[in-house]
What does this fold into?
Amino acid sequence: MNILYSLPHPADSLASGQAGHVVRATALLDALEALGHKVQRVEAAKSSSAKASVSLYRNVVRRLLPRPLAMRLRDRMRIRHSERYAQKLLALIERSRPDIVLETHIAFSRAGMLASQLSGVPLVLDDVAPAWEEEQHYGVGLRRAARTIHKEVTTQARLLVAVNQTLYQHLIADGLSADKLVVVPNGIDENLFRADLDGTPIRARYSIPPDSVVIGFVGSFQPYHRVDLLLRAFAQLDNARARLLLVGQGITSAESQALAAQLGVAQRTIFTGAVPYAQVPSYLAAADIAVMPAANEYSNPMKIYEYTAMGKAVVAPDQPTITEIVTHGENAYLFAREDVSAMATALQTLIADAALRGKLSAQGRRLAAQHTWRKRAETLQQALIERGIV
It folds into this structure.
């Protein structure tokens, strides 16, 4: 199969390797190539016009205009940019004659839709979210346009890929046909996230005592990660040996550090700052317990897959998007969502019970073997064949 992959986001690049949709796209494409398919990658962010538009918005528009006006202007720029980018896709389609255009779904982008309409090459949209997701998660300036474009592109696509059953059901509720939907969850790079990695160097770097139980979190410190809940739960623990290792950096980093000081746990909390994705496993290897403090109602957290692959005792909220992946008491310890005391109880239980940590670790590793990116690529490949797209 000859695949033309498109990333229409005006700012994100596959080379950045940080954002979740970029990690997903990179890993899935590599897995498709490993199955013998030819993949050509094209990214909107590499064009000079995209770079200029992003710079104009971030350095001028966002700073000088009121937020509602700035967002409306941003959205118009994104629509116009996607239409220009569609011409680049068309030119590549004429040269390479792909069997499909596989595109990461991005709000306000009409690029893949236009290229598919004009060329006749089937469009497959990956990581599709409901029309309201962008508005709820990031905010939009042109609400009607966002929903109109979402309907246009999902109608044109031959196959829509959702990352979990929750999103699948949301898309069905939005009126999309099950015949053009498939669930392909996130996965694990088993060569990167390995249970045999040695966490001793990271423990030594941060002067973590050998007998400490380390509670780890990896993330970009987005508001929805609720690192504040984890800090408050950690402050309730009756164990001076415990250490909290917070890996990453983002919007809530500064307020998280201030909260750690306020709660009196700053001396036992390590903030590593930003860490390249390829180095994350070496930090995670230093943890005994790995936590996801919170998750939104429709995500498919890559963290959970990566935590299990590394053999960590996973602590996460009890909600459908998590229970699709792990089971309480079998390969994870789940707590009532947004309940600090329940999270603290989960952590205290695992700190005190090394045997339970070992059980969850072993079962998690077995589970991880079912969630490799190769298996995800095979699921996508099978869906394309069954629907007669290739």
